[in-house]
From TrEMBL:
Keywords attached to this entry: Apoplast, Manganese, Metal-binding, Secreted, Signal
Recorded superkingdom: Eukaryota
Cupin type-1 domain ranges (all copies): 60-209
Subcellular location: Secreted, Extracellular space, Apoplast
Signal sequence range: 1-24
Source species: Sphagnum troendelagicum
The protein, known as: Germin-like protein
One Pfam entry name: Cupin_1
Keyword Nucleotide-binding: no
SMART domains documented for this protein: Cupin_1
């Protein structure tokens, strides 16, 4: 009689391995990124540690508010190892400053490789995420509040106050990734077939075309 894999696991004859995905652990105290290196790695090439000083670890990119004069009324200023904060290389973190005009929106999106925590420095926000059972978890944040968006789940932030707001976000991956839901579906290249989107959203193909035009480059 054949013995199933599940039976072997229950009898203790096979080891049970739990696989957890995360950024690789650093093997040096630090590895300040060399942003001019042409070499592509799963991470970034380090500069010579002899050239590193205390000021290398200081980041001043969040001193100025982002430009919210756009259709969404929001701006995201990154603090990423591979963009403008090389000292974060191999530390498993990414940062962002989030600015919102009144009624400004960071639209529904996901971070496939990271959990996100935001600290609301000023203003009022409606935030929320949707879990894999389609349950919605909204919250009304005020200055000083902190909120966590679980990894990979669709979430958003919306300024419900009458004045500009801004927050600081911390994500537990050097390269968390971001996928905006609407552009991913209606602005993809090559385009997703109208019939697929029409059936998925329960709208006629003519409306799909109208929405697609809104996301055309």
């Amino acid at each position: 009689m054949e013995t199933s894999l599940l039976q072997l696991l229950h009898m203790g004859l096979l080891p049970m391995t739990v696989v957890m995905a995360a950024d690789a652990d650093p093997i040096y105290d630090f590895c300040v990124a060399n942003l001019t290196s042409p070499i592509i790695l799963n991470g970034l090439v380090c500069v010579n540690p002899a050239t590193v000083t205390g000021s290398t670890f200081v980041f001043k990119g969040f001193e100025t508010a982002g430009n919210t004069s756009n259709g969404l009324g929001s701006a995201v200023t990154p603090g990423f190892a591979g963009v403008n904060y090389p000292a974060l290389n191999t530390q498993g973190l990414a940062l962002a400053r989030l600015d919102y005009a009144p009624a400004g929106l960071v639209p529904p999106h996901t971070h496939p490789r990271a959990t996100e925590v935001i600290y609301l420095v000023k203003g009022e926000l409606l935030v929320g995420f949707v879990d894999t059972n389609d349950k919605f978890y909204p919250a009304h944040l005020k200055t000083g509040d902190v909120f966590v968006f679980p990894r990979g789940l669709v979430h958003f932030q919306y300024n419900i106050g009458t004045t500009p707001a801004f927050a600081i976000a911390v994500l537990n991956s050097q390269n968390p990734g971001v996928q905006l839901i609407a552009p991913a579906l209606f602005g993809a290249t090559p385009p997703v077939e109208d019939a697929v989107l029409s059936k998925a959203f329960g709208i006629p193909p003519s409306e799909v075309e109208i929405i697609k035009k809104g996301f055309a480059a």
